[in-house]
Structure formats: structure tokens, C-alpha cells
Amino acid sequence: MPKAPARQKLFTLHAASNKDHHSITILPFLPEDSTYPSSLHKIHVLPMLTEDETTQLLEMAKAYASDNKSWDKQQSRHVSYKTVDFAIEDSDEITDYLDEINFDDRVFGALSENYDVDVEDMTYLDLFCASYEAAGESERGTMDRLECHRDGSLLSFTLLLSPPGEFEGGGTIFDALRDVPINDEIPVLRDGGSIQPPQAGYATLHCGKLLHGGHVVTKGQRIVLVGFVDVDERNIKQDVLFNAAKEWGRNDVRKFWDKRRLQLLENQQEIGLSAKNAIHPKWQLLNDELLPQKKRSCFGPGFMMPRSILDNIKNRADDEKIRSRRLKTEDKLLREMLLPRDLRGEKILPGEWREVEYDENGVPIGPGEWREDEYDENGVPIGIEILDP
Ligand SMILES: O=C(O)CCC(=O)C(=O)O
Ligand SMILES: [Fe+2]
């Protein structure tokens, strides 16, 4: 705990709350330099929908989910972590409503303002409505939490639809905020590093590559609208994400193997009489004929392992150390991933789509443009103006 007060002080400086907009900056896990903090270190909590809009959307979501049994079991749309949800595009009513209130413009606008990425460079990778229910409160096989993960998208948001009084627990939990003590000045931050919007209709915006999850709901139901927003590659420094993912992968595997090695060593170790500071493992590699030279195994019967190696393995397998390495890699990624504006490549605008009319042989007879009525009652396209036959 000795480090906590200093980090707390720094943290308070890094959090800003005005009435509506709360922003929290992840503390540095690497020495500070000019690249810290980047916009991606920041998590924003701000209003996205009015009270009326939130109520409407919540009603529509509940009705859709109940008609389609969307929240009765875990869905398989997300391969690595299963959520209890439905895709917004499956509900015409909700899609139309979101269009009507210019929802995409608002979210993309807020993301663009806070993360310095052009709206034109953003696309949805997914937009879905998820439900968390406290365990034991219903017969349905639903979820009460979502394990920590990283999203496929660079940017993500979670918009709270349920009034906070309708559930306990919940919130979006961030590994990097886990041991930041709670503080009156940052009302949206709760114990354990979870961010809880003050009201329904608020969204939590964050970099999807931060390790995060859905904090356990202990009472009631928490309904959220979640969006994964992808950012055009021209904004991103290539290799940075690849390298981070490689590091995280190694770190995770290391945890498993180091723990296993350590266990074997501790189960079987015998302090050598001749070398007080050495460990003489009793186990040996059985299939050492597979090694390039016979008896090459470093764990052969004659081998003395210096205690420092055991300490080193212990050190590497320690959960806190693994977490610290993971957060350092995360910090590096947040600093480096987004290219400064002047280094971003040209925007490649998507090609323009134009309707084409076909003659009776199915041969296109020229680009056209749709007018109001697209099809006659027989389903034959009408109203095409030939621009350039
Ligand atoms: O429930 C939340 O706040 C987080 C949801 C989330 O991270 C996800 O669905 O990917
Ligand atoms: Fe997520």
C-alpha cells in the first residue's frame, strides 16, 4: 500500500468531472514521456440520450427481447466471450428509432471529439443490446457478469439503458483501474475499478483494447447498448497492436507454464548436500531422445539448478507481476497505437454506388440513378434515369 497515496493524488489530477462529462485517465505503468497520456488512456462517461429517448429505447429493447427470447440464453455471436444479447440490426423498430434520433452521429461525434479520429473513419463492428441479471433471480440461463476481455474494435462504448436504481453492482470494470481507491471527486468510479454512469442514457466510451469486462450484477437487471467501433487503418500504427497481442499471449502462456514448472519443482525439489544453494530436481525428461543430443535435458539427474532460477520462475509466475507486465504492454499500446494526425495516410473514400439497368439479355445498359419509386407492383425496377448510356 505505500504507493497508493501518490498514485491516488496523481489519479485525482487525471480525472475531471463537470456536471455531465466525467473523464478518467488511466495512470502510467511505464515512465512518463511525451506520449503519455494519449487520448486512448481516457475513459469518458457522458450523456448520450435524453430521459425520454432512454425510456423509449429500453421499452423497445425489452419488447424485442421478450418476443424473440434474446435474453434467455447466451448467444454465440461473440466467439471468445458469450453475451446475452441481440443485434440491433435484427430489430427494425430499434434501427429506425436510432436513425430517427441520429444516434450514430451522436456516438461517432462524441468518439471523434474525445479520441481525435474522424467520423468518416469509423464503422460499427457490432451494435447490440445486452442484459445482465443477478444470479438466482430468474430461471433463465443468463449472465450476471462478463469476464475481462479486449474488444475487436479500437473504440467501444456501453450505454446504460436501465435506471441505476433497478440493479446493484454492474458497471464496466477496467483492470488498469482495479486498485485506484474510490474518491468523492470521481463519482463514476466504484470499488474494484468499475465505472458506473450516474444515470440511464449515459455512455461510457473507451478504447476497446483496454482489458475490461462487465462487473457482476448482484441484484436486478442491467440492460446496456454496446457498440464496437472500428477505426480505419490509416489512423493506426501498424505492428503496434500485433506486438502487444504477442506480448499478452506470451504473458498468459508464461503464467500457465511457469506455475506448472514451479509446482513440479516445489513438489520434487531436494536441496543438494554439496551445494546448499542449489536445487536438485528429482524428475527428468523421459523422451530426451527427441532432443538433438542424448542427455541434453537440463533437468537430467546430474543437474543442479541454482536457487536464483527457482526464484526467477517464482517471480515470473506471480499474479501481480503478470498483471503488471500486462498493464505495461497495454500502456505502451495506448501511447503508440494512434498515429499523430500529420502521419495518417490519405483517406481512401469508398467507391460510389450507382444502380445499373439491364436489358432483356441481362446486359447492363448504363449507370442510372434511383428515383422515388424503385419497383413496380411486379417487382420490376422503374424510375431509373439513364445518366450515361
Ligand atoms: O457491460 C459492460 O459494461 C461491458 C460490455 C462489454 O465489454 C462487451 O460487451 O464487450
Ligand atoms: Fe467489451
From TrEMBL:
Domain Fe2OG dioxygenase intervals: 123-231
Molecular function (Gene Ontology), one example: metal ion binding
Indicate yes or no for the key word GTP-binding: no
Task: Report the protein name in the record.
Answer: Fe2OG dioxygenase domain-containing protein
| Domain of life where this protein originates | Eukaryota
Q: Which cofactor does it need?
A: L-ascorbate
Question: Is this entry keyworded Membrane?
Answer: no
Q: Which keywords label this protein?
A: Dioxygenase, Iron, Metal-binding, Oxidoreductase
